[in-house]
Write a structure and sequence with these properties.
Ald_DH_C (chains A, B), Ald_DH/histidinol_DH (chains A, B), homodimer, Aldehyde Dehydrogenase, Chain A, domain 1, Aldehyde Dehydrogenase, Chain A, domain 2, 2 domains, aldehyde dehydrogenase (NADP+) activity (chains A, B), oxidoreductase (chains A, B)
Chain lengths: ~525, ~525
């Protein structure tokens, strides 16, 4: 495929007149061809009506048909992988190796949901047989399944041009659930979005599905993005990005005549707790591991470790991490704007009373590659300075020195919701670690031991989510097979004649779904 | 137990000075003793802090311990059943038989969740074993379970003083999930709330649980109710009541620094579709069944059938239903205010252009027992008059005459979200019924055939929920075992040492939970 510089509305390419954008190579400043035109609200209306028209047909497809469709998307992306990766490198400044891995992850994510469809547990089929002889009144035949919510709006993310964008986790899980998808392409990687959008669109055709199952629009977020979320045909929203943009979408969704769920993954500083015994036993490895996690991909991960709790008397970890960081060159950030926000965040942190610099790396001039930085403070300052919990997107971290178990617990209690919390502990730290686990459970979506939060497995057990403001809805995840639950709701069928029951609920169980029958699982 | 006319804050009775209320017997106008004093925001703060203090201890209880606690509540309610029912009759005007049944339902609902806890499927345990030899990188040991959200605010409902109030479905499901509960008692049945609240509070003590697991406050909804929903320690809200009150709670919850989920069940007119063949085959029984469902409990059910689609040429059904209705006396409504709202709604409906009266029953003077009413209109009027979709709480219904399948489908598409849709169809109507099923699925939470929507089974398969404005969140139900999912969220545990894993995730599976291990169910 070649890049086609326009929106895709239900398999039709549509140029617009509401502005334009070009990709920019953040490592060189080069403005990339072609020019992508922006569509207006009318195009969003078209996409939304097409999605609505496709909905009943699409949601009636069998698990196997939908799984095969997701696999076609994965295959199409892989077949065009070289071109997609090469364009994504230009548009994002991310290294080839990283994007090669991300493309594989994106394809495997689609296949994970194909597997989920074939397993069918998410359909949550429950059957209670009629009890004609129950007293005082007979019990009806009752059955329950989950049905998809309706067309979903997905917002591509800048930091994962593949895994969280056009055919990323939100799109994969919504399509798996049976929801048509309209993607608002991220303007930082329009060429990548175009290529991947075509891969999805081709799969729609190959699978024989209605054209409205997938659309992708280029436009200004404040115009077409908001219009999309406000559109009556849209029934849920998936978003990964800044807290400001996420909150704006939440407000729009809540103000609709019919409010809809917004799944916004927004900001997290991913606390790490280092316990004394683990620290003495492995100080150098811990410092190296931390700096590697902090600076990987220029720190542009949702799970980047931005806050590290170390014992107050530590000198070694701060010194070793500082020394390792000092050696490092900055890496190109995704866009000049993101780089500028990073600089402002670092400057704000540097000017915060009670915060002092530990170390910084080397800026690489002219490449939007600012220096990674490490600061330190104490728990009292952390507790009294809510601004210290604002995410600085990039390779910036804050060491927080804690005095004792009570001081650590109190500092952890002061934290907002997070995606992850990491614990560095060995056997001798076990009781101290045990005492903070209930706090961490209340604060985060994923707790990990003796590792670093970057590096997100895509499987049945991941939770990439957490309490506000990490996400807008802690009841779910945006990565992993559980994400399909975001786009479903239960429906009950009472005394519906056998001939009219949907396949999922028929006695013969033609889709071989796991079922709860009269209270027994998989009966 | 005797009625204690004060709030219960973590097992302590607390009188207030922020106003007062007394029960009123709507059938007689008698003002009932004693006087219940209202507490202020400080008491809410106390209850919320006590709930928070209890949360970690309570959520760590075993499924068996929590099940036994729910069973104690059920037993305490049944032991005091005679007094509770007698007081509820006085405060609600509902008949003894109805409230006797409702008390049994309330106790059985608590036992349903005890069963859910022992089954354990809602903990959604998933385990992915470590893969130390995976390339390019080893896979960590990962486990996932659901944990409770935190303290829950529950608003008692006027129309079910037992099953949707102090120890009703919201309380039962939140306690089952591991969430402490603070009930805002409904001021229409303060004595009933007091007795049931004491039954719960006694169970907290008998089960040896922290006192903050349960509190109940008396106060003005606009003051303590709003304060409760805005309180930072409250993490979710359960509500059944009017659309206006539900929307106000949704706004408050969305405007918090940390937005929280609100499960508000608000309004539904529960469409019924009568197909021609079913109508000719059983016209009299249909008309009788409809009028029975419409007028039962003075029509004060969330699932009351307020909209009935009949073939345009029907004369028999309207005539038979009208004749049956005309015979009926009005029944006492829950409060004088509800009765007055009903009268206003009927008056608005009577004055709507295109709507004509079919029949009305007999008002019973001086007993807040207004006449049940039946109106009729056509689909064009329904489509062009959104006000016709506003619920009139009580025994008022609107027949809508449809011309053909397309006209019916178009009218159904014009409906807002509903709790239920009922279909009266026999074998000859099967294809017509099939054609509207996808529409009904998109509009409602429960579809039932050849029955009436009043009469809600409390089991694994019920959905008492539906798209907005029937509820604020279609992804769940407020009745049945699935309701426990409202108060949970997933947490992932990565490489957490075996000794620190919660019981639910331990290899030995001490709680015998169903599990998904490496993708296989119940492995």
């Amino acid at each position: 495929m070649t890049i086609i510089a326009s929106s895709i509305i239900a398999r039709e390419h549509l140029a617009g007149t509401a502005g334009a954008v070009q990709g920019i190579n953040p490592a060189t400043g080069e403005v990339l061809e072609p020019v992508f035109t922006f569509v207006d609200e009318n195009a969003v209306d078209q996409a939304a009506e097409a999605a609505w028209a496709a909905f009943d047909t699409y949601r009636a497809t069998s698990p196997e048909a939908r799984a095969a469709f997701l696999e076609l998307i994965a295959r199409n992306i892989e077949q065009d992988g070289e071109r997609i990766i090469s364009r994504a490198v230009q548009e994002s400044g991310l290294p080839l190796g990283r994007l090669t891995g991300e493309l594989g992850r994106t394809a495997n994510q689609l296949r994970l949901f194909a597997g989920e469809l074939r397993l069918g547990a998410h359909q949550e089929v429950r059957i209670n047989a009629a009890q004609p002889n129950r007293t005082p009144a007979p019990a009806p035949d009752m059955r329950q399944r989950q049905i998809p919510l309706g067309p979903v709006a997905v917002f591509g993310a800048s930091n994962f041009p593949l895994a969280f964008s056009t055919a990323g986790g939100d799109t994969a899980s919504a399509l798996a659930a049976g929801c048509p998808v309209i993607v608002k392409a991220h303007n930082a990687h329009p060429g990548t979005a175009s290529l991947v959008g075509q891969a999805v669109s081709a799969a729609v055709k190959e699978a024989g599905l209605p054209a409205g199952v997938f659309s992708q629009v280029f436009g200004a977020g404040s115009a077409v993005g908001q219009h999309l979320v406000a559109h009556p045909r849209i029934k849920a929203v998936g978003f990964t990005g800044s807290q400001g943009a996420g909150l704006a979408l939440m407000r729009t969704a809540a103000a609709r005549p019919e409010p809809i769920p917004v799944y916004a993954e927004m900001s997290s500083i991913n606390p790490v707790v280092v316990f004394p015994s683990a620290l003495s036993a492995g100080m150098t490895a811990l410092a190296t591991g931390f700096v590697g996690s902090l600076t990987m991909g220029s720190g542009q991960f949702c799970t980047n470790p931005g806050l590290v709790f170390v014992p107050a008397n530590d000198q070694g970890f701060a010194a070793a991490a500082g020394a390792a960081l000092q050696e490092l060159n900055g890496q190109t950030m995704l866009t000049p704007g993101i780089c500028e926000s990073y600089r402002q965040g670092v400057s704000r942190l540097a000017g915060t009373p009670g915060v002092s610099a530990v170390s910084e790396g080397q800026e690489v001039a002219g490449k939007n590659a600012p220096a990674p930085v490490l600061f330190q403070t104490d728990t009292a300052t952390l507790r009294s300075t809510p601004d210290l919990q604002e995410e600085i997107f990039g390779s910036a971290a804050l060491l927080v020195r804690y005095n004792d178990a009570a001081d650590l617990a109190s500092a952890l209690e002061s934290l907002q919701g997070q995606l992850t919390a990491s614990v560095q502990a060995n056997d001798e730290d076990a009781e101290a670690a045990r005492s903070i686990l209930p706090i961490l459970e209340r604060k985060v979506g994923r707790i990990l031991f003796n590792g670093w939060p970057t590096g997100v497995e895509v499987n049945d057990t991941i939770v990439h989510g957490g309490p506000f403001p990490a996400t807008s809805d802690s009841r779910t995840t945006s990565v992993g097979s559980l994400a399909i639950y975001r786009f479903q709701r239960p429906v009950s069928y009472q005394n519906v004649p056998a001939a009219l029951l949907p396949e999922a609920l028929q006695d013969a169980n033609p889709w071989s779904l796991p079922r709860r029958i009269d209270g027994a699982l998989n009966a």
